[in-house]
Specification:
3-stranded mixed sheet, 5-stranded mixed sheet, 2 domains, alpha+beta, binds iron/sulfur cluster, Lambda Exonuclease, Chain A, 8 helices
Amino acid sequence: MKNRMNLPAPLLAGLEKSTYDRGDSDVTVSQLVNPPRIAALLGKHGDQIEEDAADIIWRVLGSAVHHFIDAAAEAHDWIQEERFYKTVRGMRVGGQIDCYDPDAHALYDFKVTSAWSVLDGPKDEWVKQMNCYAHLMRHEGHTVRSAHIVAILRDWSKSRVGGKYPEAQAMMLEIPLWSDDEASAYIDTRVQGYQQNVQALDLGDKLTKCTDEERWLRLKKGKPPVYTRCEQYCSVAKWCDMAPKGDW
Ligand code: SF4
């Protein structure tokens, strides 16, 4: 892990320990909800991605919420940070949930995010991710009646409250649940796209293109198009022939 801000060794060690590992999965839900090109490039190069400690700290703090739930969890049957699996098209698809309350049959995922990112409700990728988790849990015999993102708003400011802006530092976002058939079909399609792109990578063929929407295209009059995801956020840009030339 890189450490351009010279963060201290104990924090670095904690961050390294907390970074996601895929368990026994051939492919993970987090991977599959990405466009197929990204999913396949992650499959091939995921181990070579070197992140900087300062850039992952918010993400890791979201997954650390379970540590302070742990103290209370013993008295309940809450399931925390457990992986669920299903084999699809010969691949073991795995998804690690944050927390499940078996009394309420409710699934929760904790996300540290910007207040601006929740103005219009849950992000599309969160809806997909949670529905995949719900499906994997049902596949292993659990009932899931509701799913929620617990959004912890890292940049929330009291002075901005009003209109769509959230009224507190944390909020619940209800995820619309798909039918089990819909979720199953979605996972099947994503695995198929993933396999096709992995094969294309192996054969040196062309990969499925990311769409403008998936590349987070921003257009401003009189200015060249900006692909925000490619330029700033895509962890596999270094290996992508659609990425604008940059300092990867
Ligand atoms: S760099 Fe852009 S086009 Fe390439 S995989 Fe990432 S988002 Fe898709």
